[in-house]
Structure formats: structure tokens, C-alpha cells
Design brief:
403 residues; HTH_MarR-typ; ROK family protein; five-stranded mixed β-sheet; globular; alpha/beta
Amino acid sequence: MQRGPQPADFADVRATNLAVVLRYVRNHAPCSRAEIAATTGLNKATVSSLVADLIERRLLRETGLTEHRIGRPATMLVLDGSPYAAIGIEVNADYLTAVAIDLAGQQVLSWRRSFAGLASSPAQAATAIAALGRRAVNRVLKEDRRVLGLTVGVPGLVSPDGVVIMAPNLGWQDVNLRDIVNRALGEPGFPVAVDNDANLAVLAESRYGAFAGSQNLIYLTGEVGIGAGIISDGRPLRGHRGFPGEIGHITIDPQGPPCACGRRGCLEAIAGISAIIARVLPDLAGDGDLTDLQPEVDEVVRRARAGDPAALRALDEVGRALGQGVSILANLLDPEVVVLGGYFVPLAPWLLPPVEAELKARRIGPEQGGAQVVASILDHGAAATGGAATVLDHVDAGRLPRL
């Protein structure tokens, strides 16, 4: 039996080189074949062959000539990808979001649907998620696009094979969501994946957010739960089992309120959006579980804008607790920026000052050049957008659609 390194198969080498050219055009379009060859080190004949292949696959297209060069005008290349789309779905306690983007990153669809995740059984919830996925796939197909893949983001611990091991705020345990969605879609010819929502949201921020391209970035989900998606030295931090970033279950106050995970005083039990609503709007306590948090968040914003002392005091206290969590992340990971997402965004004018004050007080490193804390410019579909972007990453890595 042969052992040791084996020579690369020609098809593997070509797939790798196709991905090199595709990534170059994504980052430098419009560009010419000569520029690709000069920068990548591939010879001109190879580049011409690779570009012809990518044009045939409808991944690149020619866009005219440029005369801003010495010698003959060059034909310029840009991403095409219009026949393709990638789909992401984000699951939250009170809503679902579906996003589809084409290969160039242009949004094809963006839907938000109410979702009684807090009141649904795992089977009911999975059925609703699969139904939304099926509708999104059908819409993409009706536009004569080919679906490259679908990724679902869930607020919980997700195994590499798509099993939601635990999602406390949804009441899920050991839900094989990938298989359920796969079956609902009739075992489609494209990959279906499931991942943690924060991991997907930070990918969206690193691609499309205000700090796109940052090598050290953290995204905090601002939902019922608080998760952290982490980019460290330009790479997603995945940990040993794929469960990093559970900042919401760091104990802030051992005597604090009970958390859905079974412990007390977790960050999300004190600073999650349900905790904020309970503190600012205690009169809703007798109304039972909320299944749509947006109206309550809007009311919190209204009271804060009106200068309501109780609302302002509660938001300041929550902001300081959130700042404790951010300072832990900052001291451990030294990020350039920490982005607050989800429902934290409309509350950012009142949360950011106490978060920044707490971070300044607890930061170990020098103040100059320390982490910034900002509100996301992406909407509630950040994790869905990140889910679609993971599919595009696979294409960029060489998993190209077949002719």
C-alpha cells in the first residue's frame, strides 16, 4: 500500500487555480487577464484557459476594454454569478429571516417572518424553518437561478453534522435540523448546513459591515440570547468542538436572575433583550411569554427617547453588565472592534456609553488603540447573510458549480 504524500491530481490543481482566479477577480474587479497572471504567478496561457472555463460556468464575464495602460487596450473581467444564488436562514426566538445573495454579493431576496420559537416544540419549529427554506428555494428557481447551497443559523450549540445539541432559548436539545431541512427540500442537489448564528453573523460583518476586512472582529448577537462570533487574525475562531463564543453564559452575578441554561446570573439573563424588556416594561410581566419582541423594543426606545428615568436607569445598568462581558472578550482576544447586533442596534444610543465606560475601566491594555464598540449597520438578517456567504466561501475555495 502506498504511503506518504501523493502527487496532486491534475483536476485538483485546476480546481485550485480556478479558485485562485475567481478570488482575485472578486477582490480586484475590474481586472485583466494580464493583471491576474502578473499577480498570481500563473502563466498567461493558463490564465486564459482558466478564465474561459469560468466564463463558460457564468462565474465571470467580460465588461469591455480599458485604455489606461501601455500597449493595446485590455478586456476587463468582473464577477458574473447571476445564474446562481446562495441562501441563508436565521432562527431567533421571535422571527425567522431568509436571505439569498448571488455570487457577486448582491441581495436577491430578504424576508423576515414572525416565528413563535418560544412557544413551539422542536418539531413544529423545524417544520416552519424547512417551509421557509422551501419557499426561498422556489423563489430563486423561479428567477432561473441555481441554488448553490443553504445554511441555517441557530442560537445554540451546533455539531459539525448539523445537529442542534442545545438551544436553551428555543427549548431544543439534540434536534437534527440539517436532516429535517434536507428531507423537507426533497434531498436537493445542493449542500444544506446548520451553524451557530453568531458564527455566521460575524462572517457577514467581516464581508459587508462597516469594518469589513478587519482581521480581529467580534460580533455580539442582541437577541434573547447573547452569543459572540469571533474573527481572530483573519480567521473564524471555531474552537475544539465548534462551540466558542458562548459569552451569554458567563456568570456576571452569582445571585442574579435565573437563566434558560439552568444557571443564575448569566450575562444574557441580565442583558439579553428579554431581560431589558422585563426591566423597562415590568407591567408586561403578567402577559405571559412574548412571541414578538419588536413592539416591546420599540416601546423601550420610545420611553428612552422621552427621558423616562426608569428606562434610562435600566438601560444604563444593562449597558454596564454588557460592558463587563465585552471587557472579558477584549482582554482575552484583543479585537479591533466589537459590533453589537440584533435588538442592541436600536438601543445603542443608550447602551454604548455605559459599555464603553465599563470597558475603559476594566481593560488591561493601554487605552490608545483599544477595541472600539459600535452598533452594526447590518439589519436583523446578519446571520442569514452570513449563512449565504459561507456558501460563497466554498465556491471561492474551489467548490465550483458544475457545467
